[in-house]
Amino acid sequence: MNVILLSGGSGKRLWPLSNEVRSKQFLKLFEREDKTYESMAQRVVRQIRSVSANANITVTTGMQQKSAVRNQLGDVVDVCVEPARRDTFPAIVLAAAYLKKKKDLSLDDVMIVCPVDPYADDHYFKNFELLERVAASGQSNLTLMGISPTYPSEKYGYIVTQEWDNRDSYVRRVVEFKEKPGTKEAECLIRKGALWNSGVFAFRTGYILDIAAKYVDDTDYMYLFENYEKLPQISFDYAVAEQEKNMGCIEYKGRWKDVGTWNTLAEEMSSDTLGNVRLADNCKGVNVINELEIPILACGLENVIIAASADGIIVSEKYASSFIKPYVESMDQRVMYKEKSWGEYRVLNESRYAMSIRLHIRSGKAMSYHCHHNRDEIWIVLNGKGMITIGERTKVAGIGEVVVLPAGVRHSIEAVTDMEVMEIQLGESVSDSDVERFAFE
């Protein structure tokens, strides 16, 4: 099974926990059986693996989210990085070419495309096997998986289908799409048997690359990567699905939800609180998520969501929390929390010429070998042990070690155990862009 997971999003609807780097799919808010927490991305990969242990899973994402993907999913997935943000059609084309080259897929091999963040039962992913089988049979050029709707939602697109003569009974012909209709039209569509559009579909590799060939001279992966801007900046639905005449659809009847707002997320929380939180007895229907070390106390509130992170704090009536996006877009601030391939960092304080950051470096992981040209840095090891490289010299560093790194000096750190490090940046520029990376000699 070859699965392409689409990972994007601007991180606005679940602010302040999410941002342009840490979108909703990376928030660890879902409790496992062992009482630890996992993100939607981790949950989806785990569920796919439960259906197909050897599935080729490729996450297609922008450069900003590459580190978060690697941090959370490690090497159990491949990562296809988009050179620029251009929408789902070019992203899927690039991922298809990547799989053909890196996994040596034939033009007849089937690919399944799925968002990285559906919240569904394991049976949802069991349907991928049926989807793959239908796509491989050639019954249709493009095969969708629709969701049996539970209410007339205005948030989802609808797939209108009809019976298909001389085809398998579980496959219906797609007649048309209806994009986010009003409630009354949605009720009418449901009565006619329309399905929610889950954004999951399957096709043979050659099918999508043939369509891409209409826009570019070559569909080799490296050529597409280097000429990415030649692909149209449009959605897959518009470029492919709405133009395709031979399209089938299978139905999923189980639990499925788009957990994309604080209101819908609160419905799936296993506990009313997460983090350092106290709820008074006179609170009702209140959910609080606190990533800060200081406590949050809530009293006398009803039907409210509270979330706090290094990026900010939201206090909102649950229904109203679905409409925060334009307010978040009006804010202009530095991203204060990022996941990196080696761990994570959290900005503690910043001013014009200085910034302090707390780094968590996971055991066995290492930063790149790099330098900064416009700032000095000071590292203070708060916990753990690692190997710090300064120029051509490497030394062991433990708790209490203080390392001064002048501008222009190449440096790196590799954690022997989990490490907590305070980083202080000083200089004319404390910009994230002030970094030059090198290979170890």
List the helices and strands and how they pair.
Layout lengths: L1 E5 L23 E2 L5 E2 L1 H12 L4 E7 H11 L4 E5 L5 H15 L7 E6 L3 E2 L1 H16 L4 E6 L10 E5 L9 E7 L4 H9 L3 E10 H8 L8 H6 L9 H6 L5 E6 L3 E2 L4 H7 L4 E2 L2 E3 L7 E4 L5 E3 L5 E6 L2 E6 L7 H5 L7 E4 L2 E8 L3 E8 L7 E3 L3 E9 L2 E5 L2 E5 L4 E4 L5 E5 L3 E9 L8 E3 L3
Parallel strand pairs: 1-4, 1-6, 4-5, 8-12, 14-16, 15-17, 16-18
Antiparallel strand pairs: 2-3, 6-11, 7-13, 8-11, 9-10, 9-11, 10-12, 18-19, 20-21, 21-22, 22-29, 23-30, 24-27, 24-29, 25-26, 25-28
Helix pairs in contact: 1-4, 3-6
Radius of gyration from CA coordinates? 24 Å
Oligomer: single chain
Q: Would you tell me the structural class of the helices and strands?
A: alpha+beta
Rounded to the nearest angstrom, the distance between the terminal CA atoms is 40 Å
What is the number of helical segments per DSSP (H or I, 4+ residues)? Answer: 10
How many strand segments? 30
Segments where pLDDT lies below 50 for 5+ residues? Answer: none
Averaged pLDDT: 90
Q: Indicate the overall shape.
A: globular
Order of strands side by side in the largest beta sheet?
20-21-22-29-24-27
Residues in helix, %: 10-25%
Descriptive overview:
With 441 residues, the protein is of the alpha+beta class. Helix content is 22%, strand content 34%. The strands form eight sheets. A six-stranded antiparallel beta sheet has the order 20-21-22-29-24-27. The chain has a five-stranded mixed barrel with strand order 8-11-9-10-12. Strand 2 (30-31) and strand 3 form a beta hairpin.
